[in-house]
Design brief:
420 residues; alpha+beta
């Protein structure tokens, strides 16, 4: 059978093979352009039980195109559609049957070919560059990608699909920018990669060691924006107002939930025990949680319980070769993580719990914001930035109740740009 599908007759012939599970790799017009601002050139599709993959032509210089709606109709017939990146795939193939195989795998290196490397080195700013990379080279690359991912194409923890959908929801909104200020602070390799008029699109990398997403794209790290250089003024609401909800004492609160410890104000309590002011107590708290508990504070009930939990976690790790995280049920495997120690393992669990808790929070927020003008436009671990329509202030109050549901305290900041 052919491997290049470029008409509906061939598409139907592929459908008639009766495959129920496939792996697909969308080949966008440009690998570096945000998926919101590009389209699909080709689609690699590999039956899980098949002997080879196929390329479906959608928009390429060497082949006859098939309408994307016909491709989507084909994909809807499969029981399971495995992908490397569900979040990205949702922009063009919003299917309920997507399964992100990368969540089942260790961190995998990117695969390319000399042809791709050459073309991108010489034509980086051509926004449809993948239309002129030979189809056979795309096929070669995708066959190697499948070899890398095939052993991880199995049904996953359902929570991962929620993760992909949540961050797709945030990314898809974009965030407003003031171009006059933005251009003074940021020098992008190519602004058309993720800017459309006065809106910039972020990109969360969900496939990290701990599961805690990073958010850096096109030379901007949104999690590391300076608070005192003025660059945050570049980001402005497209509605009326920015409101940021910050979770107070987030990691100590999550740690308390892990060990069943209760405190009305954990920083103030620790400050009194340590004989320091609250700001210093916050600093000391994080040193103990992330660097290990020193002798001076080991007898406080909170830290005693933390140490017991860390020891228990490490014992499970050594016996089983893995530990399972709360909420997400994600497993950290000993064979995949190097240079681990008890405190670092605890930190991994805490960061994974933070992300998982936030995913559930945002899932609830998505339901509230359905059909609203107010948008969630940026997420940075313990802070959630909303672009608010002033006529929907009651919506923010409703969102605050979501945090209360998860037993979290928030502080609100308001402004007409991101520099609060």
């Amino acid at each position: 059978m052919f491997w290049l599908i470029e008409n509906t007759t061939q598409l139907k012939e592929f459908y008639n093979k009766g495959y129920d599970e496939v792996f697909v790799e969308p080949i966008y017009l440009h690998d570096n352009v945000h998926p919101k601002l590009t389209d699909v050139s080709l689609l690699y599709i590999r039956p899980i039980k098949g002997r080879k993959g196929f390329i479906i032509s959608i928009n390429h210089s060497e082949s006859t195109p098939i309408l994307k709606k016909h491709v989507i109709s084909l994909l809807k017939t499969f029981k399971t559609v495995f992908v490397r990146n569900e979040k990205m795939s949702l922009y063009h193939f919003p299917l309920k049957t997507l399964v992100d195989a990368s969540f089942n795998a260790p961190l995998l290196p990117e695969i390319t070919t000399p042809a791709h490397t050459f073309m991108y080195a010489h034509h980086l700013n051509k926004l449809d560059i993948n239309r002129i990379v030979p189809i056979v080279k795309h096929y070669e690359k995708c066959e190697n990608i499948f070899k890398q991912i095939k052993d991880h194409c199995y049904e996953q923890n359902k929570f991962y699909s929620r993760v992909s959908k949540v961050f797709y929801f945030i990314e898809n909104n974009g965030i407003g920018i003031n171009r006059n200020i933005f251009d003074k602070f940021f020098d992008l390799p190519n602004e058309t990669f993720n800017i459309l008029e006065n809106r910039i699109f972020t990109s969360y990398n969900l496939h990290t060691t701990t599961g805690r997403p990073s958010n850096a794209f096109n030379n901007i790290n949104y999690a590391a924006l300076s608070k005192d250089k003025g660059e945050r003024k570049s980001f402005v609401p497209l509605n009326d107002t920015f409101i940021e909800l910050d979770i107070s004492a987030y990691h100590p609160t999550l740690a308390s939930q892990l060990i069943n410890f209760s405190s009305s104000n954990i920083y103030a309590e620790f400050a009194e025990i340590a004989g320091v002011e609250v700001p210093k107590a916050k600093e000391l708290m994080f040193r103990q949680l992330y660097g290990g508990i020193i002798e001076e504070y080991k007898d406080w009930e909170f830290f005693k319980k933390i140490q017991t939990y860390v020891d228990k976690l490490w014992n499970q790790w050594k016996i089983n070769g893995y530990i399972e995280c709360p909420i997400s049920k994600h497993r950290f495997y000993e064979k995949r993580i190097k240079n681990i120690n008890p405190q670092k393992l605890f930190n991994y669990v805490l960061q994974n719990m933070e992300t998982s808790n936030n995913v559930n929070i945002i899932w609830d927020i998505i339901k509230i914001l359905k059909d609203k003008n107010t948008k969630l436009v940026l997420y940075t671990y313990d802070a959630f930035l909303f672009d608010v329509d002033d006529s929907e202030m009651d919506t923010i109050e409703e969102i605050k109740q979501v945090f209360n549901k998860y037993k979290l305290t928030t502080k609100a900041k308001t402004g007409y740009n991101y520099e609060f």
